[in-house]
Design a protein that fits this description.
Structural class: alpha/beta
Shape: globular
CATH architecture: 3-Layer(aba) Sandwich
CATH topology: Glycerol-3-phosphate (1)-acyltransferase
Distance between the termini: 39 Å
Number of strands: 9
Order of helices and strands: HHHHEHEHEHEHEEEHEEHH
Largest sheet: 7 strands, mixed
């Protein structure tokens, strides 16, 4: 590791350590204030969030009477709260969250899926979206069920940000794989009977175009890669969702996704992705202030080529 990066990491630890010891009510209030401030200061992300929300509201996939501005501000506040909780976990582990995280639906089905994965040695693919505090959910699941999780994620190309993210995600013994050129490692995890976790609600505009599949009433490029690896290896696919309510977090674990009937190959994978998009979209409809609206989820290769600042 470069010397300069080591110094930066030490300074980041020193600067964030006091924040981790704030009382919960104060830490969450501090995070929410920071998130709302970011909403007002980041014109680009605010524009993207409001544009996305108004577009999906016009489709009828959000309540017509919903105030887009207020909802978007609260979504940024949720990100701020999640950031403070990440700092808290980074320095103190899961202890401060004891009694504040619960599985409200799906524990029995998940335990059965875990047992089947252990017995068959085919692993589980866990998919989720940017809802609630998804990072904390991954850490909790690994601790609650006594099985480490390998998280698949993007890297930013910024050494300090990437190093901090990897430190956080591997803090409790979990592993991290970069999405870029990580297929071989992902296969290894599934073949060894492990748990592989990834996000399904980001646009895939890059080397792999993905499939164009409806998401909240509008076509969105969707990455089929992880689903393809799971289906080929016989691993079950499980959707997990997170939401916050005050100081508490609630997890919803859906039953394993059954293989599509009478479909094979890419058609079957597209059907898988469509169902996952539908289930996640339904959850976002219920809790729109807890999804990350500031991402250009509905951008397309053509639109990005014509206008890199396009929100669609």
């Amino acid at each position: 590791m470069p010397f300069v990066l080591k110094i930066q990491l030490i300074l980041a630890d020193i600067l964030t350590w006091p924040l981790a010891w704030l009382p919960t009510w104060l830490g969450l209030a501090f995070g929410a204030a920071g998130g709302r401030l970011a909403f007002h200061l980041s014109a680009k992300r605010r524009r993207i969030a409001l544009g996305n929300m108004e577009m999906i509201q016009a489709n009828g996939s959000l309540p017509p009477g919903m105030n887009a501005g207020a909802t978007a501000r609260e979504a940024f506040a949720n990100l701020g709260r999640s950031a403070w909780e990440a700092i808290c976990f980074y320095h103190r582990g899961l202890a401060p969250f004891a009694g504040r995280i619960a599985i409200e639906e799906g524990r029995e089905a998940f335990e059965a899926a875990l047992a089947e994965a252990r017995q068959s040695g085919r692993g589980l693919l866990l998919v989720t979206g940017h809802m609630g505090n998804w990072e904390l959910m991954c850490q909790y699941l690994a601790a609650e069920f006594g099985q480490k999780l390998t998280v698949v994620g993007r890297t930013s190309g910024k050494p300090l940000a990437d190093a901090l993210t990897e430190r956080f995600r591997t803090k409790s013994g979990n592993a991290f794989i970069s999405k870029k050129d990580g297929a071989r490692d992902m296969i290894r995890v599934l073949k060894s009977g492990g748990l592989l976790g990834t996000m399904i609600d980001q646009a895939t505009i890059g080397d792999h175009a993905g499939a164009f599949i409806p998401f909240m009433g509008r076509g969105a490029t969707t990455n089929l890669g992880p689903l393809r690896l799971a289906r080929r290896g016989g691993a079950a696919i499980v959707l997990m969702l997170s939401r916050r309510e005050g100081r508490r977090h609630y997890l919803k674990i859906l039953p394993p996704l059954p293989p599509p009937a009478r479909l094979e190959g890419e058609d079957a994978l597209t059907a898988d992705a469509a169902r996952l998009n539908e289930w996640l979209g339904d959850y976002i409809q219920q809790y729109p202030d807890q999804w990350m609206w500031g991402h250009r989820r509905w951008k397309t290769r053509k639109k990005v080529r014509e206008n890199p600042e396009s929100i669609i």
